[in-house]
């Protein structure tokens, strides 16, 4: 993978992470469904997400 492809992969990941984090913060906004970004069932899955605790390191 060349540098340009690698950069695009990293940018895509950053955009996906930002959108996901926004949805966690505002999970009830109907714009996601209206704009066909997520389905209602996908939003339900986001609403129910419980992050797992990170193991402690010593």
Quick overview:
This protein has three helices and no strands. With 58 residues, the chain is mainly alpha-helical.
Q: Tell me, what's the shape? A: flat
Show unreliable segments.
none
Supply the number of helical segments: 3
Strand content: under 5%
Question: Would you mind describing this structure in some detail?
Answer:
- With 58 residues, the chain is mainly α.
- It has one domain (3-48).
- The chain is 62% helix and 0% strand.
- The protein is built from three helices and no strands.
- The longest helix is centred in the N-terminal third of the chain and has 23 residues, at 3-25.
- The radius of gyration is 15 Å and the shape is flat.
């Amino acid at each position: 993978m060349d540098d340009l492809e690698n950069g695009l992969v990293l940018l895509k990941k950053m955009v996906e992470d930002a959108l996901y984090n926004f949805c966690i913060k505002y999970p009830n906004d109907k714009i996601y469904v209206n704009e066909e970004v997520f389905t209602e069932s996908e939003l339900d899955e986001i609403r129910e997400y419980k992050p797992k605790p990170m193991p402690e390191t010593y």
